Amino acid sequence: SEPWLDRKKTASAMAYPEYYFNDFHYQTDGWMSSSSASVYEVSTETLFLGKQDAMQRQTLIPLVQHFENDESPAAILEVACGTGRFATFTRDNFPKADMTLTDLSPFYLEKARQHDQYWMDYRGEEALKENLINTDIKPAKFVQANAESLPFPDNSFDAVTCVYLFHELPENARLNAISEMARIVKPGGIIVLTDSIQLGDRSDSDDRIGNFKDLNEPHYENYISTEFSKWFENCGLVCDKKYVSSTTKTVSFIKPRNVNSGHV
Question: What is the pLDDT of residue 261?
């Protein structure tokens, strides 16, 4: 396994935010080793009783609906892609799109690259045929980046997705990430966010939803009690759709065609 550095020195030298070094849900090594990336899917599927893939795929509903009567998106970004497994589901539906994946962990980005290669080898050509597309399959692009400071020009992507990131961010980091996603999505484009349900989403769960904080989730209590739709609206976006399934919810936001970039 990779050698550990002093966390405070590493945070400063590599520009990792201090909150990133928490071992969320007691994942061994946090996000900072190849072994962590290798066991992530098994550990989280176990944590969510085999429902994780299904809950992630809920993200596709507003994404597919948004482009149903429009030209397919030319460029899609997934922020905080982790192992890249969800990106393969996105590529199943939009195999022609230029796909870019960001994550702050180089170890998880490498696992995402492996998942993308596997998808191209065993699924890519079939997905193109299913969508009646006659072109060569292209690999995704992989960029190490903090969601709070995305290295892309304004109005770069037709769609931006983000899955299971927000509950692990402090409130100010969530605000910065929203501002960045609003900035880089194109006018007429869509942002789709999937994460844990919050207080009020399922009233029968309100009395126990906060227990998830005990899995070493220091920002979870703040997350479940924070209404962040207004933050997207403050960036000039319009609330679109909301879906709730099990312990996960998906919300989408549209950037009006007369808005160029968003800042809170």
Answer: 54
Pairing outcome for strands 75-79 and 141-144: unpaired
pLDDT for the residue 234: 96
Contact 65, 241 (CB under 8 A): yes
Which residues are CB-neighbours of 224 under 8 A, at least 6 positions away? Answer: 167, 196, 197, 198, 199, 209, 210
**Cβ–Cβ < 8 Å for 230, 242:** no
pTM: 0.91
Position 134 scores a pLDDT of 74
Sheet with 185-196, strands from edge to edge, namely 141-144, 98-103, 75-79, 157-163, 185-196, 248-254, 238-245
Q: What are phi and psi of 38, to 5 degrees?
A: -70, -30
Residue ranges of the chain whose pLDDT lies below 50: 1-7, 9-13
Return d(Cα 241, Cα 239) in angstroms, integer: 7
d(CA 175, CA 20): 16
Cα dihedral value 196, 202, 203, 208, nearest 10: -40
Q: Which stretch of DSSP H or E encloses residue 99?
A: strand 98-103
3-state secondary structure of 139: coil
The Cα–Cα gap between 61 and 50 comes to 20
Task: Give the tens place of pLDDT for each residue, 156-192.
Answer: 999 999 999 999 999 999 999 999 999 999 999 999 9
Token look-up 């402090």 returns 170
* Secondary structure of residue 77 in the 3-state scheme: strand
Predicted local distance difference test score (pLDDT) of residue 2:
41
